[in-house]
UniProtKB/TrEMBL annotation:
It comes from the Eukaryota. It comes from Salarias fasciatus (Jewelled blenny). The lysine tyrosylquinone cross-link (LTQ) is generated by condensation of the epsilon-amino group of a lysine with a topaquinone produced by oxidation of tyrosine. PANTHER family: LYSYL OXIDASE HOMOLOG 3, LYSYL OXIDASE-LIKE-RELATED. This is Lysyl oxidase homolog. Mediates the post-translational oxidative deamination of lysine residues on target proteins leading to the formation of deaminated lysine (allysine). GO terms for biological process: collagen fibril organization. GO terms for cellular component: extracellular space; membrane.
C-alpha cells in the first residue's frame, strides 16, 4: 500500500488563491478528483501539505471555498492521525465511495515554508495521464561521430520497460516543437521525410511534454500499425549556449529576461527588465505555459517546472508582472497578457521561478568526487585526454582553488551550490588517482564546466602531492546576501567627529592613514555616515566559515568578530580609482529583525552564535562605530560610493553578482547627496554604463 501511496499525486487548485493554498485534488486511476470535507481536520491538512512539500498546514477550508472541482470525489470521511506519509494511508470510506457533492470540496492552507531538500514529483504530472509516454529521446540517424547535444534523429518514446518509435503519418511541425522543447531546444526545423507503439500524435504546439498531446496507441499484436509511413524524425535548433563554442559564451540577457539564484543551468528566479532596471514576477497564476515562454526566450527548451513561493530565493527591488497568462507560442513574456503589480498584491515571498529543459551535454561524465563522507563532498577528479587520445582520471592542483571554482565544479557534478572550495584534501585520501592534470584553474563562477574556465596550458603545481588536490563540499541550498540600497540613500549624512571619540575606531583601522599624523585628541575627522541593512534572500543561513574558537574579541566594542573582512567601504572617482581609502569592516553578524513568521536565530550577545537567517537582516545603524567612510582628505566633487559584502567570497552564496552596491555621490565640501543607489546587478548594462559615466548627475532614476 505504501509504495502505491507514495506515487499518489496531489495538487492544489481553484481560484482565487496563493501558491500554498487551494482545493485538494488527487490523481487516482488516471483522473483527477477532489476530497469531501466531511470529518476533515487539521491532521488531514498536515499530511496533505507535507505531501506537497510544505512543512505543515496552518488551516483547512470547507464548502468549496476555492470553487467547485470537476470529476470524481475520490475520498470522503478521511481521518488522519497526522503522521501518515500519504493521505492514502488514512482511514476513509475508500476510493470513490462518497455521498458528497462538489459543494463540499475540501481545501488546505499550508505554511509557506518548504521541507528542506524536498524534490517535487515533476509538475507536469498534473497535466499528464498515467497510461502515456514517460520519456522521449532522439536516436541519431547519421552514423557520424556523435557530438553532443544530439539535435536531430528518430523520435523514440519510453513506455514501461522499452523504447518504441512513432509513426510519422500526420506528424506536424507542432509535434516537433513539443519534442524539441522537452529535449532542451527552443526552436525546431522542418524536415524532409525520409512494430510502432504510438500510432499518431496531435500536439497543439504549446504542450510541455509529448504525453500531454492527444496520442493514438497501436493495439497489441496488430500488424500494419503505420501503413505507408516511416518512423517520425525531428530536427531541433539549439539555443546559443549549445551551438559549437557556445558554452564559452555568456548567456545574453539582451532579451529583457534573466534567471537568478539557481544552482543549475536553466533554472532560477525569473527577472524582467523595464526602464533600465530589473524586477521580479509575482507567482499568481504562474504556470508551465508562461514558464516555457521564458525558457525558450533564453535559448532553453520548454519548462520542466513552474515554481512558486520564491523557491529560488527572493528578489529585491520592483515586482513588475502578475497573473501572466501565456498561450505558450509567444516570443517573449512581455507579449503575454499580465497585470501590473500594486504593493498590496504581491511580495517577494511570491517571486516566480522556472526549471527549464536543457539539452543533454554529458558534462557530468568528465568529473567525479571521491573519499567524502556524503555524495556531496570529496576530492575532485577530472577526465583528461593525453596527446595519444588515451583518457585518464587525474587531480586538480589546489593552490588557486576558491569558492568560485567550486561553484562551477558543483554545478557540473549536478550537486547544487558550492558550500566550500578546499585547497587540500589529505583527509579524503581514498583513491589510487595521484597525478595532477589541471592547475591554475580560474573561473568567473558562471561557467557550466571546469573545461570552460582558464587554466595553465601545462600543469604547474608547487605542491604536487595528492593531499594538496582540490576538493568541494556541495549543497542543494545556499545563502544570498543583498544590501538594502534605498536605506543607504535615505540615511547618508556628514559628521565632523572629535578625535577623542575615535580611539576605538582607530584601533580597528576604521580611519584613513592620515589620522595617525593628527594631533590626538584635538581636532576631528570628517565622516560620511549611513546605515547598512543586509538581507539574506537565499535558501540557507549565512554563517561565518571560522569556528567560534578562532573568533577575535574586540575589547573596545565588547564583542567577537567572526569574519576578518565582512564589507569593503570605498569612495571612487569616475575612472574607478579610490579617493577615500575606505576600510575593510569586520562586524559581529546577527539577526536584527526578520520577515513575518521567521524567527531570529543569531545574536552577538553572550558569545552567541553568529550568522544571518534566511528571511532576516542585520542592521548596522549610521550611529555605530566604523559605519562610515573617512572623507577628511577628499576634495569636493562627484564620486561613486561602493559597498561590497563578503568581498573575498569567504562564505559561499548562490549569487555574488548582487554583493556590491553603488551610489552616485555629490560632495560640495559641506554637504553630501546620494542618488541612484542600486545593487550591482539591478540595472541594465546600458543604464550601468551611463551611471558610471556621469557620477554627479542628480537624476532620480536611470532609464534606458
Amino acid at each position: 500500500v505504501e509504495v502505491a501511496s507514495q506515487r499518489l499525486k496531489v495538487r492544489l487548485a481553484g481560484y482565487p488563491r496563493k501558491h500554498n493554498e487551494g482545493r485538494v485534488e488527487l490523481f487516482h486511476q488516471g483522473e483527477w478528483g477532489t476530497v469531501c470535507d466531511d470529518d476533515f481536520s487539521i491532521s488531514n491538512a498536515h499530511v496533505l501539505c507535507r505531501q506537497l512539500g510544505f512543512v505543515e498546514a496552518t488551516g483547512w477550508t470547507h464548502s468549496a471555498k476555492y470553487g467547485k472541482g470537476l470529476g470524481r470525489i475520490w475520498l470522503d470521511n478521511v481521518q488522519c492521525g497526522g503522521g501518515e506519509k500519504s493521505i492514502a494511508l488514512c482511514k476513509s470510506r475508500g476510493w470513490g465511495n462518497s455521498d458528497c457533492t462538489h459543494d463540499e470540496d475540501a481545501g488546505v492552507v499550508c505554511k509557506d515554508e518548504r521541507i528542506p531538500g524536498f524534490v517535487d514529483s515533476n509538475v507536469i504530472d498534473a497535466h499528464v495521464s498515467e497510461n502515456k509516454v514517460e520519456e522521449v529521446r532522439l536516436r541519431p540517424v547519421a552514423a557520424t561521430k556523435r557530438k553532443l547535444p544530439v539535435t536531430e534523429g528518430v523520435v523514440e518514446v519510453k513506455h514501461r520497460d522499452g523504447w518504441a518509435q512513432v509513426c510519422d503519418l500526420g506528424w506536424s511541425i507542432k509535434n516537433t516543437r513539443v519534442v524539441c522543447g522537452m529535449l532542451g531546444f527552443p526552436h525546431e526545423r522542418r524536415r524532409q521525410k525520409n512494430f510502432f507503439y504510438v500510432h499518431s500524435v496531435a500536439c497543439s504546439g504549446t504542450e510541455v511534454h509529448l504525453a500531454a498531446c492527444p496520442l493514438e496507441f497501436s493495439r497489441p499484436n496488430s500488424t500494419g500499425a503505420c501503413p505507408g509511413g516511416a518512423p517520425a524524425a525531428v530536427s531541433c535548433v539549439p539555443g546559443p549556449l549549445f551551438t559549437p563554442g557556445g558554452l564559452k559564451k555568456k548567456l545574453k540577457t539582451s532579451s529583457g529576461v534573466r534567471l537568478k539564484g539557481g544552482a543549475r543551468l536553466g533554472e532560477g528566479r525569473v527577472e524582467v527588465l523595464r526602464g533600465g532596471e530589473w524586477g521580479t514576477v509575482c507567482d499568481d497564476r504562474w504556470n508551465l505555459q508562461a514558464a516555457s515562454v521564458v525558457c525558450r526566450e533564453l535559448g532553453f527548451g520548454s519548462a520542466k517546472e513552474a515554481l512558486t513561493g520564491a523557491r529560488m530565493g527572493q528578489g529585491m527591488g520592483p515586482i513588475y508582472l502578475s497573473e501572466v497568462r501565456c498561450l505558450g507560442t509567444e516570443r517573449s513574456i512581455w507579449n503575454c497578457p499580465f497585470r501590473n503589480v500594486s504593493s498590496e498584491d504581491c511580495q517577494h515571498l511570491e517571486d516566480a521561478a522556472v526549471r527549464c529543459n536543457v539539452p543533454y551535454m554529458g558534462l557530468e561524465n568528465t568529473i567525479r568526487i571521491t573519499g567524502g563522507r556524503t555524495r556531496y563532498e570529496g576530492r575532485l577528479e577530472v577526465l583528461s585526454t593525453d596527446p595519444n587520445g588515451t583518457q585518464t582520471w587525474g587531480l586538480i592542483c589546489g593552490e588557486t582553488w576558491t569558492t568560485m571554482e567550486a561553484m562551477v565544479a558543483c554545478r557540473q557534478l549536478g550537486l547544487g551550490y558550492a558550500n566550500q572550495g578546499l585547497k587540500e584534501t589529505w583527509y579524503w585520501d581514498s583513491s589510487n588517482v595521484t597525478d595532477m592534470v589541471l592547475s591554475g584553474v580560474r573561473c568567473s563562477g558562471t561557467e557550466m564546466s571546469l573545461s570552460q574556465c582558464q587554466h595553465h596550458p601545462t600543469v604547474s603545481c608547487q605542491k604536487a602531492a595528492a593531499k594538496f588536490a582540490a576538493g568541494v563540499i556541495c549543497s542543494e541550498t545556499a545563502s544570498d546576501l543583498v544590501l538594502n540600497a534605498s536605506l543607504v540613500q535615505q540615511t547618508v549624512y556628514i559628521e565632523d567627529r572629535p578625535l577623542h571619540m575615535l580611539y576605538c575606531a582607530a584601533e580597528e583601522d576604521c580611519l584613513s592613514k592620515s589620522a595617525a599624523k593628527a594631533n590626538w585628541p584635538y581636532g576631528h575627522r570628517r565622516l560620511l555616515r549611513f546605515s547598512s541593512q543586509i538581507h539574506n534572500i537565499g535558501r540557507a543561513d549565512f554563517k561565518p566559515k571560522a569556528g567560534r574558537h578562532s573568533w577575535v574579541w574586540h575589547a573596545c566594542h565588547g564583542h567577537y568578530h567572526s569574519m576578518d573582512i565582512f564589507t569593503h567601504y570605498d569612495l571612487l572617482n569616475a575612472n574607478g580609482t579610490k579617493v577615500a581609502e575606505g576600510h575593510k569592516a569586520s562586524f559581529c553578524l546577527e539577526d536584527t529583525d526578520c520577515h513575518e513568521g521567521v524567527s531570529k536565530r543569531y545574536e552577538c550577545a553572550n558569545f552567541g552564535d553568529q550568522g544571518i537567517t534566511v528571511g532576516c537582516w542585520d542592521l548596522y545603524r549610521h550611529d555605530i562605530d566604523c559605519q562610515w567612510i573617512d572623507i577628511t582628505d577628499v576634495k569636493p566633487g562627484n564620486y561613486i560610493m561602493q559597498i561590497v559584502i563578503n568581498p573575498n567570497q569567504e562564505v559561499a552564496e548562490s549569487d555574488f553578482t548582487n554583493n556590491a552596491m553603488k551610489c552616485n555621490c555629490k560632495y560640495d565640501g559641506h554637504r553630501v547627496w546620494f542618488h541612484n543607489c542600486h545593487i550591482g546587478d539591478a540595472f541594465s548594462e546600458e543604464a550601468e554604463r551611463r551611471f558610471e559615466k556621469y557620477p554627479g548627475q542628480l537624476n532620480n532614476r536611470i532609464s534606458s
